[in-house]
Structures are given as C-alpha cells and as structure tokens.
Automatic annotation (TrEMBL):
The gene is tpiA. GO terms for molecular function: isomerase activity. It catalyses: D-glyceraldehyde 3-phosphate = dihydroxyacetone phosphate. Belongs to the triosephosphate isomerase family. The keyword Aminoacyl-tRNA synthetase does not apply. It comes from the Bacteria. This is Triosephosphate isomerase. It comes from Hydrogenimonas cancrithermarum.
C-alpha cells in the first residue's frame, strides 16, 4: 500500500509561497507518476483551491467546530467550504500543550468535523516525562488521548507524534516507533503515521517500520525540495 505523507506548515509560508510550493510539488509528482496520497496543511491565510494533477490534498491545521459565529480569531465551516477543504488536523500537540486545548474540547471538535464528513488527521503522543515513566504510562496516556474519539471512523488517519521528538531533531528509534505503533494499532485499525523530526535522512528507516503507514512532517516539509526528496524515497521504497 502507498504511504501517506503529510506536510504541516504550522506558522510558516505565505499565500504566495504556498502557491509556489504546491505548483512545484505538483510538477514533480506529476512528472514522476507518484500515486500516493499527499496532504498539505498550510496556514489558514493560505487556504485556497489548488488545481493539481497529482493527488495533493489540502487540509486545515485547525478550525472551530461551527459553521460560523462569534469565535474571534477562529475559522469555521463557512470559511473552509469556500475553498472546498474537507480535511483537518485535530489534537496536534502544539494545540494541546501551547494553546491549551483539553481532551474534552478536542473530542467535541473531532465529533463535529466527523459529522461534516471530514478526513481527520488525529494526533496523539506523549511528553518526555511520560516516556520516562515507562511503557505502561505511555500506553495509558495514549488511551486517554483517544477518550471521546471514534477510532473506527472510516475517514480517520492517526498520527503518533511523541512531543519530545517534535521540532527537536530527536527522532524516536524505529524500535520505539514499532513498539508504540503496535499499542496504537490495538486501539484503531485506521492508517497510522509517525511524526517527530522526520527528514530526508531518516524517512526511509521510518517508513520501513512495520505498522507505519506514512509520516506527518513539520520542519523538513517546509522546503519543497526536501519534501520532494522524502516523497521520492517513499515512492522508491514501494517499488
Ligand atoms: O505536525 C508535525 C509534527 O509536529 C512534527 O514536526 P517536526 O517534523 O518539525 O518535528
């Protein structure tokens, strides 16, 4: 099965640079005949309709569970609908730990976007102190992060992102990814991505981990050449 690669731009790229990125990526993927699913999550200000030849899907990094209303600073279904956006990231660790989203709110958001038929990339992952507390603590933490989440939803893609590996350059070892993915696979049979300092130098090893269906990439995805290189690795290793 083709791997799923997803690029999370976080608070990077403008409307103009996002368009240039997607055009360059599309040209590469189209020329190489790449058939895998590729997701791009630009910042909200760069959401748009992009006509692409390759299978590039645009998603929102975040939105409020509403059609529209009084939620200052947020966007809702009306704003996403303008650009035909039907994919959203929910539960990213930066929204949990920096923006303070609770599991109850995340579950509410998940249920609402599920109701709208969105593809949901749902992120879970433990902070360092939980990892250091041992395997049982990690398992309990991940189970708690699935509380209130329909893990059988057919348009769910899970992403395991250990917080200590995000943006730190410290990647989980293939053994640890395999072991943790096995725990998560017992909670859901949906595709499961790994995220946390994935880059061109390590993506082959990560995609080769049993139970790893792809990668959610932050930092190393922001440069289109780097993203193309990771997609080429995914494609080469499928053959
Ligand atoms: O959504 C992506 C993850 O937070 C990983 O970010 P990173 O590749 O910069 O570690």
């Amino acid at each position: 099965m083709s791997k799923i690669l997803a690029a999370n731009f976080k608070t990077n790229h403008t409307r103009a640079s996002t368009r240039a990125y997607i055009e360059a990526l599309d040209a590469h993927l189209d020329a190489s005949g790449y058939k895998g699913e590729t997701y791009i999550f630009p910042p909200a200000t760069a959401l748009d309709r992009f006509e692409t030849k390759a299978d590039i899907r645009i998603g929102a990094q975040n939105a409020y569970p509403t059609v529209k209303g009084s939620f200052t600073g947020e966007i809702g279904l009306e704003q996403l609908g303008e650009f035909g956006i039907g994919t959203i990231l929910v539960g990213h660790s930066e929204r949990r730990h920096i923006l303070g989203e609770s599991q109850a709110f995340i579950a509410q958001k998940y249920a609402w976007f599920k109701e709208q038929g969105f593809t949901i990339v749902y992120c879970i992952g433990e902070p360092l102190e939980v990892r250091e507390a041992g395997d049982d603590a990690v398992r309990r933490y991940l189970v708690d992060q699935c509380e209130g989440i329909d893990t059988a939803y057919e348009k769910l893609i899970l992403a395991y992102e250990p917080v200590w590996a995000i943006g730190t350059g410290r990647t989980a070892t293939p053994e640890l990814i395999e072991q943790t993915h096995a725990v998560i696979k017992r909670l859901s049979d949906r595709p499961l991505l790994y995220g946390g300092s994935v880059k061109p130098q390590n993506i082959a090893d990560i995609l080769a981990v049993p139970g790893c269906d792809g990668a959610l990439i932050g930092t190393a995805s922001w440069d289109v050449e780097s993203m193309v290189s990771m997609l080429e690795t995914a494609m080469r290793d499928e053959k």
